[in-house]
Amino acid sequence: MASKLSEFSTNTSSFGAKGLAIAKSDSADIAGGPVKAITVTAAGSLSFIPPGNADNDPISYADVPVGFIPPYQVRRVKSTGTTATVRTIED
Q: Superkingdom of this entry's organism (predicted)?
């Protein structure tokens, strides 16, 4: 049974419709963010801030592989502590 793309709901649990490169910053949030998710496109370390966390309370991962998607919405990807390349997952 074939499914039509228009039948998918657009919410935080749906697949993304676009992905953009992220400018890492220790002080500026993602333009138009927060985004529903991010995905790692080149392995490395990752440090980011979800919408509910304070600026000084990032979540960090070491040695994340390509394809890793943290289980958080993201408002900022920090330049300090991030060596991975990441892109947004957005509606």
A: Bacteria
